[in-house]
Design a protein that fits this description.
This protein is an alpha+beta fold. It has 17 helices and twelve strands. Strands 1-2-8-5-3 form a five-stranded mixed β-sheet, sandwiched between helices. A three-stranded antiparallel β-sheet has the order 4-12-9. A hairpin with a 3-residue loop joins strand 10 and strand 11. Helix 10 crosses helix 12. It is globular and about 70 Å long.
Length: about 475
């Protein structure tokens, strides 16, 4: 068991770039990084445990020691950790074709998500993106706005003045309902518990090693398998029901497009049942959790900054005059958008991005051999005092048009950049602003006594202890 623990620690530490091991061969120029240490195995276990306790702080310490790019040797070819906007731009934009998603993290994601847009690469990714993109056109996303507001208003009607609510769970359920209703024309009410269980099992599988060999039964592995089975039952049921439906919904939703689309620019074929399943699961899980986390942190930040909260309320009261928000209102709610953007700067739902070098390339002038893993720490970029004075402070004024224009490109990148920019970026930003506006019209939230607001860096940047808050009717 001790040997297996050591192997697990080494494997995970290698993947996240925390392993302090022998330096690379002297003939290869590499960035600064952890020095060689004795007691490699026991030391690695210690580093791994420290990383689990506070990964964001651990990586921040590495960047402070070694600079904007550091190197950690590993058995798989080495890992490069980066935070500078210019280096992010190299990987995501100018050299995007030289990197792919065969990184270890995405291989583990595929256990649940399959080969959806988030995980796939090459021709498969291009084909699926081409077939899904129309569902996220500006006109289509605009059509989803009414469903977003309707679900937000329904959520506000379930809140009770003076009661304690776990806002983390409330936002999770709300965004799941929005995604299901807008993209699949489906009421997710009865499915929220199943999806939550699947996400929790998935998070546990990804962030910690399974010390039981793959050929032996494992309670945690079986828990994940059951969660996937339950999730598949829902998703394949949606697909079957839609295929049996005589008429398409008006307007056609994403689910209809997936089951009927033909790749007219490619082979002319449609998506298989499994391909449709993988895309639905990806959008269901990844599409609701990221926005949910962004909103949860927004409510927390507003509760801690009454001046910003008062300014938000004043804008909403002036523009909306008590009626529900609409898509047309968003241009007249600039401060609402600034609040969301600053929240995602401080707590980016996607706090890091992983890539692997397909070919020999370079980052920041350093050669990066094919097979090297690269981790882009967006959280560290967003907390860099060079781009954001007082980086830990909540200041929505950073995102006025004039101030935002001063930022280096990719100093702010919550949705990534380049050809792999999040396909749901427009959907998520409209959803977050409309939900914030609709709920903040009616309620404000104060932190419940004893509640700790601690980030949990898992698949997304969630909360370690939930977010219990007291709803106060305005």
């Amino acid at each position: 068991m001790v040997e297996r623990l050591e192997q697990a620690a080494l494997g995970v530490a290698d993947r996240v770039g925390v392993l302090e091991a022998p330096r690379a061969p002297p003939e290869r120029r590499v960035p600064p990084g952890p020095p060689e240490r004795r007691g490699r195995v026991l030391g690695s276990i210690g580093y791994y445990l420290n990383f689990l306790v506070d990964p964001l702080g651990y990586v921040a310490d590495r960047f402070e020691r070694y600079g904007d790019i550091y190197y950690a040797p590993s058995a798989d070819g080495g890992l490069y950790a980066i935070r500078h906007p210019d280096h992010l731009h190299e990987v995501l934009v100018t050299r995007a074709a030289q990197f792919d998603k065969t990184h270890t993290a995405f291989r583990r994601l595929s256990a649940v998500l399959g080969d959806g847009l988030l995980n796939s690469d090459g021709d498969r990714w291009k084909r699926h993106r081409r077939m899904i993109q129309p569902a996220f056109s500006h006109a289509r996303v605009a059509g989803y706005a009414a469903a977003m507001v309707a679900e937000a208003r329904a959520a506000s009607s379930r809140l009770r003045d003076g009661e304690v609510h776990d806002v983390d769970q409330e936002m999770m359920e709300l965004t799941l309902r929005v995604v299901s209703r807008a993209l699949f024309s489906h009421d997710a009410g009865a499915d929220t518990a199943t999806v939550s269980r699947a996400m929790a099992a998935f998070q546990a599988r990804l962030i910690s090693p399974d010390l039981v060999p793959s050929w032996l039964p494992s309670p945690r592995r079986r828990h994940l398998e059951r969660a996937i089975e339950d999730l598949d039952r829902i998703v394949y049921g949606l697909i079957a029901a839609r295929r049996a439906r005589a008429q398409a919904p008006d307007p056609p939703d994403l689910l209809h497009m997936l089951v009927t689309a033909l790749d007219e620019e490619g082979d002319g074929a449609g998506l298989t049942e499994r391909e449709v399943r993988d895309e639905l699961v990806t959008l269901l899980l990844a599409g609701h959790e990221t926005t949910s986390n962004a909103l949860t942190w927004t409510w927390y930040l507003l509760s801690q900054h009454p001046a910003a909260e008062a300014k938000l309320h004043a804008e909403l009261d002036t523009v909306l005059e008590g009626r529900p928000p609409t898509l047309d209102d968003l241009d007249r709610l600039p401060y609402t958008e600034q609040v969301i953007k600053e929240s995602m700067r401080l707590y980016p739902p996607v706090f890091m991005v992983a890539r692997m070098a397909r070919v020999d390339t370079e980052i920041g002038g350093y050669p990066v051999p094919a097979g090297s893993e690269v981790v882009l720490w967006l959280y560290q970029t967003h907390h860099d005092a060079r781009w954001y004075p007082r980086p830990a402070a909540f200041d929505p004024e950073r995102f006025t048009p004039a101030e935002e224009a001063k930022l280096p490109r990719l100093a702010y990148a919550p949705f990534g950049a380049g050809p792999r920019t999040c396909i749901g970026k427009s959907f998520a930003m409209i959803e977050a602003r409309l939900i914030l506006a609709a709920l903040a019209q009616r309620f404000r939230f104060t932190l419940a006594p004893g509640q700790r607001a601690t980030p949990a860096a898992r698949i997304t940047l969630g909360t370690r202890h939930g977010m219990k808050m007291i709803a106060r009717r305005r």
